[in-house]
From TrEMBL:
Residues 1-124 form the Nucleotidyl transferase domain. InterPro entries: GlmU-like, NTP_transferase_dom, Nucleotide-diphossugar_trans. SUPFAM superfamilies: Nucleotide-diphospho-sugar transferases. This is NDP-sugar synthase. PANTHER family: N-ACETYLMURAMATE ALPHA-1-PHOSPHATE URIDYLYLTRANSFERASE, NUCLEOTIDYL TRANSFERASE. The lineage of its organism: Bacteria, Pseudomonadati, Bacteroidota, Flavobacteriia, Flavobacteriales. It comes from Kordia aestuariivivens.
Amino acid sequence: MAAGRGLRMMPLTTNTSKAMIQFNNAMLIGNSLKQLKKLDLQSISITVGYKGAELAEYAIKEGVHNIFNTNEKGNAWWMYNTLLKQLDAPLLVLTCDNIVEIDLEWISAQYLKHNSPTCMLIPVTPVDGIEGDFIQTKNNQIINLSRTEKTPIYGSGIQILNPKKINDCTEKADNFYDVWTQLIAQELLIASETYTKTWYSINTEAQLHTAEKLYT
């Protein structure tokens, strides 16, 4: 997911997309793409928005198979309005602003352990200064998401989901919070165990500089 405008990172995003900001001598999105290219995946897709042509050109050179223009759309729009809606298989969802060590073997094992749910969020331990949706669970079933009711875990931005299953059991929604709300009501939103690999989210210029120091 790389269509965000990145307003909180102005002026760095005045003339480029958030995904194309320089991070440790590479593009911010390149941290994940480099890892994904080494995995046995059927395809890699990205969403683009602001300065989408520039990002799409870079992504294709980096081995991305599908580009979806979601400019001025919500972050879940692609799931109901592109060919991915027909995908009846696990789809790993990442955000371009995460600095994360992708342990696909662990994520896949968690997905199978929880009986291949419609949607599974990957929680992390909260990091000071980084906002997130706090997750309340009962036997790994998510019963509430909140920005104010603090819990020991919150969403990392990493999910594994089945687009066709989601289309079959929810009404169209533009943003993930509305999708998750529908799934919670049907007891279909699951949380994995807490992710312990490297994870950091970049939403501001200060966080970018912090990440550069932490993950050089």
